[in-house]
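Technical annex, item 7. During the second reporting period the consortium partners agreed on a shared format for inverse folding records so that results from different sites could be compared directly. Each record opens with the tokenized structure and is followed by the designed sequence. A conforming record, contributed by the partner at site C, is shown below for reference.
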């Protein structure tokens, strides 16, 4: 794999890595024309917090209505309603929103690994493979013929089929197993609630071998999230290191060293950015954060020692300063305004405060409110 000249690990600082990632992810630079383009670029958007997760593709898309800073939430909802993207379990034991054409590829790449990881918890809840496979069969049949079931309706179908105690955490495990076994996926929301649909009726047909799927997933990851490490990828996708490395060897990715780490990428580094600081208000599970568990030190702002970052952030959503975590935020919409509370691990310069206000104002516009109340707080 080729190494870019002039980037031998001594000239690329953590802040430069973060900025490069912001351009790769299209948080910065040219935005996509539609939210669907953003979903296709990222491949999977972590979505355990359903409403906030819509901010991730929106921020990477050009405005589609007057007065908005980026795509409206309605345009994200429309994709979910018509099944162009589905919110389901494919990578790790958490929700992701995925383009419908990529679901089979992602399940082929790592679905079995996620199922194996679930084994201990399944057994703790008295769920063996035979029972779980029976649940998947029942749910596939109950959703056949275009029946989209809420969680409550899915539980009723399981109970009617003689499945014991399809409630609470047991039900969550039953549904997740059925998703990972390609029996169900998310359907059209009903009364504000997520539903489950028959997998084969909703997801385009097409078999794919595991090695081909891992290679496709690796290409997507390093194109949209590079520079990143091999372990960043394996942890994001729940893969064995050997399988992931075999996929990388066939992709011709470029690499660079930063300290003792090897990072892989396909998109060239961006030109030096002119202008002052940039502040972005992102959801707490934005891909700028969740894609880099191995190289997390590049995610946290380089101006603050890691020991200064609290173990638990004050708010769940995150403030990025020049692409790196510097604090957290919370928005509370009101009738004519939105209250935006912010907390940072250090004080800001006047230029950084101005950038923070601009970022908060973009958030105000996305919430569709004419006014905002901005609360500024930071660690002394």
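Designed sequence (site C submission):
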């Amino acid at each position: 794999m080729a190494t870019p000249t002039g980037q031998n690990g001594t000239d690329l600082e953590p802040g430069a890595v973060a900025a490069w990632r912001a351009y790769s992810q299209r948080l910065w630079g040219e935005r996509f024309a539609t939210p669907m383009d953003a979903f296709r670029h990222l491949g999977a958007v972590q979505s355990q917090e359903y409403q906030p997760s819509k901010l991730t593709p929106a921020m990477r898309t050009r405005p589609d209505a007057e007065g908005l800073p980026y795509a409206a939430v309605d345009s994200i909802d429309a994709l979910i309603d018509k099944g162009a993207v589905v919110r389901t379990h494919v990578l790790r034991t958490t929700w992701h929103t995925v383009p419908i054409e990529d679901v089979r590829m992602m399940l082929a790449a790592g679905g079995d690994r996620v199922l194996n990881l679930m084994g201990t918890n399944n057994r703790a809840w008295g769920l063996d493979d035979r029972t779980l496979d029976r649940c998947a069969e029942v749910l596939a049949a109950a959703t056949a013929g275009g029946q989209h079931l809420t969680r409550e309706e899915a539980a009723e179908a399981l109970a009617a089929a003689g499945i014991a105690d399809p409630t609470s955490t047991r039900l969550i495990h039953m549904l997740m197993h059925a998703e990972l076994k390609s029996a169900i996926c998310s359907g059209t929301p009903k009364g504000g609630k997520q539903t489950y649909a028959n997998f084969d009726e909703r997801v385009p047909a097409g078999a794919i071998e595991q090695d081909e799927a891992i290679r496709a997933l690796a290409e997507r990851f390093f194109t949209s999230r590079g520079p990143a490490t091999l372990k960043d990828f394996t942890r994001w996708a729940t893969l064995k290191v050997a399988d992931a490395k075999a996929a990388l060897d066939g992709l011709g990715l470029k690499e660079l060293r930063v300290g003792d780490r090897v990072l892989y990428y396909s998109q060239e580094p961006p030109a030096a950015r002119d202008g002052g600081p940039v502040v972005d208000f992102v959801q707490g599970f934005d891909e700028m954060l969740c894609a880099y568990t191995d190289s997390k030190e590049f995610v946290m702002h380089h101006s603050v020692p890691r020991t200064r970052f609290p173990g638990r952030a004050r708010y769940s959503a995150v403030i990025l300063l020049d692409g790196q975590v510097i604090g957290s935020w919370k928005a509370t919409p009101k009738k004519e305004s939105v209250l935006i509370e912010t907390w940072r691990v250090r004080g800001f310069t006047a230029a950084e405060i101005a950038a923070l206000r601009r970022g908060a104002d973009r958030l105000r516009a996305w919430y569709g409110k004419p006014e905002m109340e901005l609360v500024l707080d930071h660690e002394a």
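The longest strand covers residues 324-333. The chain has two domains: 35-202, 279-378. All partners now use this format for quarterly exchanges.
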